[in-house]
Amino acid sequence: MWRWVKCGELKAFLTPGGKYKIRKEGLESFIQKKMKHLSDVDIFQGKKVLIVDDDPQILKMITQTLSSNGYNVEEALDGFEVGAKTMQFKPDLMIMDLYMSEMDGFEVCGRIKENPKTSHIKIIAYTGFHTKENRDRIMKAGADGYLIKPVEKSVLLQSIEALLDQ
């Protein structure tokens, strides 16, 4: 980086203390021009995960787990809130309960996967009401993963990482 600064390819400024500093905008611009294979989102913030559950305690636990592991997290309490959060937050992945008030996870998953603007979002469904029928139904609706509550933190993180690495 020092060579790029010295030859003027990477813009930097000198502080009163004699240190060179690079502004975020300058680094982002440099990456876009010189290192197109790198994503600025990956460099400047964690992957975005939207957690959808009508149980505030579960939301809090998953949010804390993911935030402490470098993920950028948003929450939605029901299926209706998912629409607005999805368009505004643009998550890379959703973790969604199957049974919620208003609109269940099956319907939400189907709508997300049917929309060309959101179909790329990975979805992990999780439930405390595990049956073969529920698993088959949500996977048919387009879910990319399925977990049973309660889920170990390590299993949750491994599942997320595996899907985001695809």
Task: Summarize, please.
This protein has helices at 2-6, 24-34, 40-44, 56-67, 79-89, 105-114, 132-140, 153-164, and strands at residues 13-14, 20-21, 48-52, 72-76, 93-97, 122-127, 145-148. The protein has 166 residues and is of the alpha/beta class.
Map the helices and strands.
Blueprint: H1 2-6, E1 13-14, E2 20-21, H2 24-34, H3 40-44, E3 48-52, H4 56-67, E4 72-76, H5 79-89, E5 93-97, H6 105-114, E6 122-127, H7 132-140, E7 145-148, H8 153-164
Parallel strand pairs: 3-4, 3-5, 5-6, 6-7
Antiparallel strand pairs: 1-2
Strand order of the largest sheet: 4-3-5-6-7
Q: Assign the CATH class of the largest domain.
A: Alpha Beta
Distance between the termini: 30 Å
State the helix count.
Answer: 8
Q: Provide the CATH superfamily of the largest domain.
A: Response regulator
Given the helix and strand composition, which structural class is it?
alpha/beta
Helix amount, in percent?
Answer: 40-55%
Mass-distribution shape:
elongated
Explained architecture:
This protein is of the alpha/beta class. It has 2 domains: 2-42, no CATH class; 45-164, 3-Layer(aba) Sandwich (Rossmann fold), CATH 3.40.50. The chain is 45% helix and 17% strand. The chain is built from 8 helices and 7 strands. The protein has helices spanning 2-6, 24-34, 40-44, 56-67, 79-89, 105-114, 132-140, 153-164, and strands spanning 13-14, 20-21, 48-52, 72-76, 93-97, 122-127, 145-148. The protein has a 5-stranded parallel β-sheet with strand order 4-3-5-6-7, with helices on both faces. The chain has a two-stranded antiparallel ribbon with strand order 1-2. Strand 1 (13-14) and strand 2 (20-21) form a beta hairpin. Helix 5 (79-89) packs parallel to helix 6. The two termini are 30 Å apart. The mean pLDDT is 88.
